[in-house]
Amino acid sequence: xxxxxxxxxxxxxxxxxxxxxxxxxxxxxxxxxxxxxxxxxxxxxxxxxxxxxxxxxxxxxxxxxxxxxxxxxxxxxxxxxxxxxxxxxxxxxxxxxxxxxxxxxxxxxxxxx
Length: 113
Description:
Radius of gyration: 21 Å
Helix content: 10-25%
Oligomer: single chain
Strand content: 35-45%
CATH architecture: Sandwich
Distance between the termini: 71 Å
């Protein structure tokens, strides 16, 4: 009896997923972006800068040396925006395609407001 109930439960769960209309996931790629954030006026590295990719649902913050590292899963056709924000500084937004091949060596400058 337990075996029949287990099989029935498995069939119901599988059928629920099939009937839910879930579409197959698009091809994704992993993009790793790292670098440092600074204030160009005094050449000071900025700690606690918020680095966010809203489309990917990822947020990280720069460390005490202004360095950051973010790993994103994006659809191959996607060009999400990456936003760099710090209180007292103008926000900078870059599209993934703008960053291009320099994903491991970014130097971001934020201007004081």
